[in-house]
């Protein structure tokens, strides 16, 4: 602590002692991004109402160490202290805002904003918030499955892996473009350098009489709301136990190009299933 701060603290104590709970500093709020991608700028904001009092100072701290001070009565009003790898864009910063340029992982931490009103009260308030600097994975997540086709009732298992990132990515599964809800069973592998990779396993049981003869499975990896990437989609086809299904499969090849063959395939498969059910023939 320097002399100025000590003197200031003494004033605050004396002022509070005489004035008690009188409050001239209202609704102090801190707005720090929860997450920022490495290499990007981060804008930290502090809003407050002084209710007629003058501003004495704004101080910003990272993990309790002051790196930015704005005192309107001093010239220059802005002081930046060398803390960690923090780079402040002074021209873009003022009594409400501090802009940190090209943040890196070392800047992850707790940021605090302290506002002091001027004499005679020197009322002071402080608020804190966490910011995480994200280093995303270098590639998209990868999905693999233990089979390429299925028949109704089969157990299907798929893995999704997201390469190392900081912090570990969250994995979300999609089956036929429907999000699989409540799926949070992420296995996280920690590495000594702080990075972590994620692996998630999806287990499905194929419906016995599904109107759709395919299962499209993909996964998405995300880190807070600053990074998101999807895997490729794996398409599993239902094998009909009926030998005539060879015909169905030849149609399925064209199904991705136009709409009409898709409907024909669906009708054909439905018809085959009906036929199979009523004739009682099954080669299973
Ligand atoms: C996905 O993982 C499989 C099995 O480990 C591997 O053979 C394949 O190359 C990977 N694909 C991509 C796009 O990384
Ligand atoms: C999924 O991952 C587990 C554990 O790493 C492995 O044993 C299994 O073979 C994988 N399955 C597929 C389909 O990749
Ligand atoms: C990996 O690291 C995270 C965060 O530090 C921790 O919560 C988790 O327990 C660790 N997981 C393992 C398997 O060590
Ligand atoms: C992962 O998801 C949980 C639950 O939605 C969320 O609280 C957490 O912040 C997410 N973590 C990351 C790294 O995105």
Automatic annotation (TrEMBL):
Residues 39-116 form the Ig-like domain. Residues 1-24 form the signal peptide. Keywords: Signal. It comes from the Eukaryota. InterPro entries: Ig-like_dom (IPR007110), Ig-like_dom_sf (IPR036179), Ig-like_fold (IPR013783). Coiled coil: none annotated. SUPFAM superfamilies: Immunoglobulin (SSF48726). PANTHER family: BEAT PROTEIN (PTHR21261), BEAT VI (PTHR21261:SF17). This is Uncharacterized protein LOC118279265. It comes from Spodoptera frugiperda. The gene is LOC118279265.
